[in-house]
Amino acid sequence: MAGDTLKATTDAAGLAALIARAGEQTAGGKGGLPPVERWEPPFCGDIDMEIRADGTWFYMGTPIGRAPLVRLFSTVLRKDADGKTYLVTPVEKVGIRVEDAPFVAVEMSVDVRDDEPVLVFRTNVGDVVEAGAAHPLRFAIAGENQELKPYLHVRGRLEALVSRAVMYDLVELGEILLVDDRDMFCLRSGGAVFPVMPAEELDRLSR
To answer: What is the mean pLDDT of residues 75-90?
Structure first.
């Protein structure tokens, strides 16, 4: 059984093969994402896998250089209510480490539908996500330099950190809108409005 060997596997390709076989046993394994939100396997401990802030995946201290492997692992990621991220199959759940967000938004395009902008993002693992009410953007200020960090909801509790290059393009699309009787620097996509920061804070950072 895959559950007997997943945690003990010491080779990333072998781990991927187990996950692929698990996916083939589900409807999600044929053309769609596996239904990880419906699976409730037992927790079998943590494995030495980490997703760095730049989106690079490491297994046992070594970068996973094969994009198809990373894509496969990404399809069985799940972040639970405990705040931890797991690889999940029908028979087993193992914990991994995530330095920031599990995905990185590396590309953005802008469509216009019904005279409304729609921001479309592509992640480093190939997901294409339209920002909107179902996939909101959120913004955090972090670090000693008070760096703006945008995040995009991808699925479940999983988010993508918007890369720095894409962030600059994103900010160029911002506008000042009145939100709750306050001038806010905002972005619009798919009919939804996402406040970034108060307008006066933007002025301060721009000086």
So the answer is: 94
The pTM score is 0.86
Which contacts qualify for 113-116: CB closer than 8 Å, 24 or more apart? Answer: 113/190, 116/188, 116/190, 116/191
CA–centroid distance for 162 within its chain: 9
- Report the alpha-carbon angle 126-113-102, nearest 5: 25
Q: Encode pLDDT of 11-61 as tens digits.
A: 666 677 767 665 555 444 445 788 999 999 999 899 999 999 999 999 989
Q: What angle do CA 46, 49, 54 make, to 5 degrees?
A: 135
